[in-house]
C-alpha cells in the first residue's frame, strides 16, 4: 500500500467488493487503474467472467480497460514463471490480486488470456444495442438498421410527411395551421426547430405523449412542477437569509415606508412585513421586493443607497430624522457588505426574479396542446422514416433498450434473465449519464442487495461533466452521491491524489477553480462544487501556467486572431527549445477555433495530427470528387460537369470554360465536349486537355450503372491521375474515406439520394492521418477539441480562443428544462415561444435562463478539463475586444469569462497586449484595381488512356496464357504483393454477390482500370503492368469458373466469412490474424482456406505445391488451433492456388 497518499483509505475502501460505491475521481487520480483492480478482485469471487459487466462512455476507454486487465494478468504470469514478485506498493497489490485471478481462471478453465472477449467491457451505447437486440423491439424498423448520428435528412423526411397532413383533412390539420401562423409561416425555421427537438426527444417525448393522451392530468402535473420549483427556489433563499431575517425585515419596512413618499411609489399597496414571505406562487411578487432591495438591475449586490431605494437623507430641519435615516442606511450597507461574499445567494436571488407569478396561461397551454399532437404524429412518422432510410440514432437504441427491460413492477423475461446472470456492474464516467441511461441502470439493479453479494460501482468526476449537448445530466451524479439509488445502499468516496500534473499546475488549478466553481451543489442546475487535488509529484518547479491575451478594436478582430495564431507558433517553438522529445497538444472549444492556426502550422512546417477536427466538406479534393460523382451519374448536371473541367485533373482556363458553358446552353456539357469541332473559340491547350479528358472518361460513361459505383468513381479518378494532385496525407485519407462512403450509399450502381449523400460526406470528419503532413524530428502537434481530449494527457497544452463565443441558436419552438428536485426526482418544465412579435412567457424565459446557466457551469468544467490534461505546462491564449471607452469586453459565454476574476489576481504570467494594426496592402491588378485571382492549380500536361487500358476496351488483345508469363509473380517485390492484394480483394467482394458468368466477366472488366492504377504505383513499366493485369484477370477467371472450386465462394454456407479477423493474446499483447476464407460446410465441418496467388517458376507443379504446403502448414495449423478454443467442430485446412487453379488440403 502507498502510505504517502492522503486518499489511500478511500482507495482501499473502494476495493471492498462486498459493498457498492460511487467514487469521485478528479483529473489524474488514476480512476482507470482503480476500476481495473476492482474488476480483477471481482473475478476472484465470480463463477464466470460474464457475471461482471463494465460500462464505459467511449470505445477507447473500454479497450484500455480490457487491455489493462489482460496485461496485468500476463505480467503476473511472467513474474511467476521467473519466480519473482513485487514486495510493496501498488504493483504488489495488483500482483496479489492478479495471482488469485489466474488461479481462478485455471480452476474454472476460463481461458482469459486466450479469450479476452469473455470480459464484458463495453460502451453504454453498445450495451443498449445489445439489450435492444435481445427482444424484437427494433424489428418494427425493418431489417437491421444502421446506427448513425447523421439523422437530419431522416428527420426532414418525417417532418415533411407530417406537415403534408395540412391538406388532407387530418386530425392535426388545424394544429399544423396554428403552428404555421404562430411562426409567421416560416417553414424553414419550423423545420430547423423541429429537427433540434427531435435530436433531444428522449428528454421530452414521454411527457409530450402524456400531454397528448391525458391533457388535464398533464396540466395539473406541469403546474405542480412549477409550484415545486418555486417552493424549492424560495426555500433556498429563505435558508440563507434566516440569520439576517430580523434586521432585514426592519430595513425592508423602513424602505417601504419611505418609498410611499415618492411621487410615483412602486409598492403603494404593500403593507409592513411581519416575517419573510411564504413559498407559494402568490408569494413570488413579495420576494421580488426583497430582491430589488438587495441587488441592482444588473444582478449585482447594491453598493449605494438613495431615496429611490427607500433610504433618504432625512429632513433638513429634523436632525433626529436625519440621524435615524443615516443609521438605517449604515445598517443596510453593513448588511449588504456581509452578504457580498455569498455568490450563491446572489445567484439564487436573481433566480427569484425569473419565477412566474401566475399559473399557466390558457392560450399558451392550447398552443402547447396543438404542438404535442403534432409531435406525437411526428414520432409515428419518424419510425416510418427510420425504416425508409435504414438508419436509427442512439436515442432510439436507448429507448428500445429501456423498453426491453420493462419496469420494476413488470420486468421482462430479459430483465429477469440478466438479474440471474449479472452480479456486478461497474460504470466509468458516471457524471455523463443521461436520465434514460439511469433508468436502464436502475432497472438492472432493481431488487439487488448486499446480502445477495451483488454490487454497483460508479466512478466519475462531476467537475469533468461536459456532455450536456448529448443529454448528460451531472445532477444525476450529484443526486446519487447524496441520496444513493432506491433500494441499494451506495457509499460515497472521494479521491484527491493527482498522478499526472506537476505541483505548480495542481496548485494553480486549486487556487483558480476553487472560486470559479460554485460553492454549493445544485442538482437541478447541475452546479458542482470544486474538489481539491494534491500533487503526487511534489517537486518544486518554475511556474507552468501562463496567460497571454490580445486586445483589439472591433474592426481588427480577424487580424487579432491571426496574431493569436502566430503566438501559438511562438509558444510551440519556445517549448521545443527546452523539451524536444515531449508532446504538445492544442486544445480548442470548437473546430472553427483552428481556422487561423492550421495554416500557420503548415506555413511553419510544423507537423500535426488531428482527431475529428476538420470535416471533409472543407476539402477542395472532396468537392471535386462529389462533382465527378454527380457528373458521371447525370450527364445533364451542368454545374458538376463544369466543376470537374476546372478541377486539377483537367484544369481549363476560365476563357475555355466560358466557351464550353456557352456552347452547352442547349445541350449537355458532355455532348458539347465530345463535339469540339463545333466550338472554335477554345484554345489549343484547352482542346488538348478536353480530348484527353473525354478519352479517359468515355469508358466510365459506358459502364455507368453496370459497375459498382465505388469502382466506377475511384477508377475514373485514378485514370484522370487524381492521386497526382494530392499534396498531403490528410488528402489521401479523405479520398479513401470518400470511396468508402460511396460503397456504403451505393444502390444499383447509383445513389438514391445524392443530396443526403453529399451531406453525409460534408459532415464526416477527416480521418486521422497515418503519418504527419511534414517529416519532422519532433512529435506531431496534437489538435483536438476539449471534449475529445477528455481522458488523455500531454506534456504541454496550448489553449487558444479563450475569448471566442459559440454561435447563437434559433429561439426554440418550445423550451423544456429537465431538473431534479430536492429528492432527486426528475421533473420537466415545458413552455412554448409566443407568436412572432409578442412578449415571451415568464416560464419560457425562466427555462431559457436555466439552460444558459447550465451551459455556463459546463463551460467552467470544460476549461478545467482542458487545463488538467497537462503534465508539465499550460499556455492560455485569447483575443478580447475593446469598447468605445477602451474597456475590455469579456463575453459572458466565452471560456475566458469563467476565470476572468481569478486571472486578474495573477501578478505573474498574465499579460494583455494591444494589437498593433500593421496591415500590409493587398496585391491588386493596377489596371482595374481588383484583387489578384486565385491561381489555377492543374497538371502541366494531361494524358489520355494508357495503351494497356485502350487495348482492353478496344478488345485488340487476348489475355496471355500462364505459360507465357515472363514475370515472377511470387511475393517478392512491390508489384507481386499488389497482385496478391488485388486478387484477395476481388474474391472477398465476389463472394458476397450473386454469381453468374456474365456478371463475373463484367466485374473483372470494371476492375481493370482500378487495378492498373494500383499496379502503376508499384511499377512504372507499362509492359510489366499489362502482364500483371492479364495475370490477375486470368487467375480470377480460371479459379471462379472451375466447377470443382465454386463451392468455396458460396456465401450461403454457415458462418461464411472472407478476410476474417481473429484475435488472441500472446504474452500480454493482443494480436490479430486475417484468414482469407472460412465457413462451415453442409456436413458441419469448418474449413480454413488460405489463398496463394503465386505461379510456378523454374519448377514443376508438384514441387511447387509441395514447397508451398511445407511453408504454410504451421500457419494454417495455428489458425486451426485458434478455432478449436472457440468451438468443437471438425476442422479442415487447405491452400487454394489461384494460378493453377487447385485446392490442396493440408494434413497435420
Descriptive report:
- With 1148 residues, the protein is an alpha/beta fold.
- Helix content is 47%, strand content 13%.
- It is built from 38 helices and 29 strands.
- The strands form eight sheets. Strands 11, 12, 13, 16, 17, 20, 21 and 22 form an eight-stranded mixed sheet that branches.
- The relative contact order is 0.09.
- About 3% of the residues have low confidence.
Which labels suit this protein?
1148 residues; alpha/beta; 8-stranded mixed beta sheet; 29 strands
Question: Mind sketching the topology for me?
Answer:
Layout (H helix, E strand, L loop, with lengths): L7 H7 L5 E5 L6 H13 L8 E5 L2 H23 L7 H20 L11 E4 H11 L11 E2 L4 H12 L9 H10 L4 H13 L1 H13 L1 H27 L3 H15 L24 H11 L24 H21 L3 H10 L9 H28 L1 E2 L1 H12 L7 H9 L2 E4 L7 H10 L10 E6 L13 H10 L6 E5 L2 E2 L4 H14 L17 E2 L9 E8 L4 H22 L5 E5 L8 H7 L4 E3 L9 H14 L4 H9 L7 H10 L5 H5 L10 H19 L6 H11 L9 H17 E2 L2 E2 L2 H10 L17 E5 H4 L4 E6 L14 E7 L5 E7 L9 H26 L2 E13 L5 E2 L10 H4 L6 E5 L9 E2 L4 E2 L15 H8 L19 H18 L5 H20 L5 H19 L13 E13 L2 E12 L5 E7 L8 H24 L6 E7 L4 E5 L2
Parallel strand pairs: 1-7, 1-8, 2-3, 2-6, 4-5, 6-7, 9-10, 11-20, 11-22, 12-16, 12-17, 13-16, 17-20, 27-28
Antiparallel strand pairs: 14-15, 18-19, 20-21, 23-24, 25-26, 26-27, 28-29
Helix pairs in contact: 2-3, 2-4, 3-4, 5-16, 6-8, 6-15, 7-15, 9-10, 9-15, 10-14, 11-13, 16-18, 21-22, 23-24, 28-29, 28-36, 35-36, 35-37, 36-37
Give a quick precis of the structure.
Helices cover 47% and strands 13% of the residues. It has 1148 residues and is an alpha/beta fold.
